[in-house]
Protein 1
Amino acid sequence: MAARSTVRYGAYPVLMAAVILGVAAAPWRDVPLAWLAGLVMAGLTAVALLERWFPFDPRWRQPDRDFPADVIHAVINLVVMHSAVLGFVVLRNWVGWQGMWWPNDWPYLAQVFMAGLPLDLSLYAVHRLSHRYGFLWRLHSIHHSSRRLYWLNGERRHPLHAALMAGPGLVVLGVLGAPAEVVGGWLAILAVHLAFQHSNFDYRAGPLRYLLGNLCTTPPTRSWRRVQGQYRFVGWDRNRC
């Protein structure tokens, strides 16, 4: 029981700290974006194993013929997202735009969290609108079609809706002049966080819940409620649970 409690409260902060440290090492790698992609794969694998060993609801461990579809969604959405990042950088370089202002002299990790602000606000705002307006809801409802929670269904999204959610934030970062490896660093952190958030792993965020959205990030309170704004990382709105 003590070991399970340690895992329940310790897994999220320990694994996320490891991911953030891995992201911090990206600038010293030969191909930073490839390093970040590998880091995401390692983080997702860890969350998948944790929910297998410590499930919140053992019934959700049973296959529901959803895994192949969710894999396809994940691959397509990750390709769309990272292609958009690279596309902005290529377009910016092609037109000779250096950016309005970006703190290139800041430590890399500080730049990553700086990039997270407009990206996270973009995800939060479009997600909230998607629960209010029919056109956006029709795209977003795919994400709510799961009959169980597990580590991969956070990526069950319509590619157009994924682009609409991230697009405003990416445009802001493109205009500001954020480097691709900085944006990729935040997306790597976010991907592992979302795997936790949608997982069937019986975990608790502890005091971090006040930053991450009270108890909405943990399966026991989140489960099927699928409250508005579940995507956001930063506490834009604490009261929507």
Protein 2
Amino acid sequence: MNTSRRWLTGAGIATVAISAALFLGGIGYAHWGAEEAHSGPMGPGMWALDCPMREYGVARGGPQALGPVEMSSPTGEAPSLAMARAIAQDYLTRYGDSLEIAEILEFTDNFYVQVKERDSDRFALELLVTRDGRAIPEPGPNMRWNVRYAGMGVRHYRSTGEEMPISPDAAVSLAQTYLDRTMPGATADPEVAAFYGYYTLHILRDGRIAGVLSVNGFTGRVWVHAWHGEFVGREEP
């Protein structure tokens, strides 16, 4: 009887912990064509029950991988921008010499890293460097929409010859329509990064980076990267 009671108590604590992580995670996911934006605890469009990220838990402070993602070992210390670049660069060695860092944004919860192909100059994938110094594939569009570097590490590398029907300009327009409805006063950065299957761009407020979002190049869905925290600074090669 005591064993059963302890097991039930432990299960209850685990359930509460998982629920809290989901509540705090704030995953942004919305369909531009919907009459109303998805809404959740962080406001319209910032969290949705139909978000296709059931495989991953995203908690304040960075994504906690629940699937077989490829990640580096933590360094055990909070990295600077320069350290974050070194950690991300070391992670990219598993791809050989084909990829390079295009941009690093520092946020309060993690570092966001855009990676592009050296030969084609096409954007390839997105990484996060956590505050404990670990590189991990970014969850969200990078794992769910990338049709060439399809998340989950290099084992799942694949390619497609199908071009995105939505143009970069159209992606910016879709993003702005979404922001007008869910984040009044925010603007979509006209400079977009074209990945394989989607676009990523900055969310701006008063000309300053306030966040990141992606637009699916086939469906027009908008996904806010709501796991970064507040913007701190930027580093480019």
Protein 3
Amino acid sequence: MKHQIIIKYFVAIVFATVIITGCEKAQYQTVGGYDFEYIIANKGKKPKQGEYVYYHVTSRAEDKVIKSSRRSQFPQVFEIPNEEKLKSYQSPFLEVLSEMSVGDSAHVTQSLEDMRRLPTEYGDAKELIYGVTLLRILSKEEYEEDRLKQKIVADGPKQLYKEQEAKVEEIMSSFFGLSLEDRFNGFETTESGIKYKVLSESNEGQIPELNRHMIDLSYYACLSDGDKLDSSFKYGIPYTFLRGAGTVMPGWNEITGYLREGDEAIVYIPSEQAFGERAFKGNVEIPANEDLYFYMKIEELKDIKN
């Protein structure tokens, strides 16, 4: 069940700044009367009572992020109850899940004016805004099967993952061992300045489409001096995200549009397409204006339209 990874720390979203062209801006209400709007609306199948949803949620008071499930290792899971029970939770973000489909993102608002004591981190905020992204919808049978698979992954042969990471470390070590003049020989450059070199190419694999494909991505991340930042291999499972949903750094959304399912690549992402002038502190620390380097492999694509 628990299968997301700490990449959240350096691909974490500041959901209030994401602007998607063509997204629905009309206001809606949950069953409990909370106002919400779709940021991405795929108009797909909504979860039914008894189904399980995998999601991420980030709460914000004014410009400050209060809590985010992306700061933990795993997504949240919730079983959709009947309407009466759902309303009894008095939870804006749980209620809005029942109005979403896979790949959707929404903002739902909770007024703070009637609360007598507010946590100090809320400051003078009059409302909380929850940014919610729905990742998966599973039946009870699928959920139980998924739990079993994740247990197998968690209890599986970790030596295999160590061997995979060791090979990738050699690739990145060789890359950083080159002089600056030779480092980018053979690389392609995108319009935004991202540089990439495909190491192992899949000519038959599909290129992920925006707001259509969930991507399972293995990665190994480094700072500009070559120091390791993080790696999916130590967790034994790729990071999953919807291309175009605004849940990862801009550079990830862009570069995955140049790679096919099965491709392996070394990728340089300039700071402007990563975190820019913001320093990032979490389980990993990224200085301001830091360029990032990745080994990437698109392991699998899942079409949310099918």
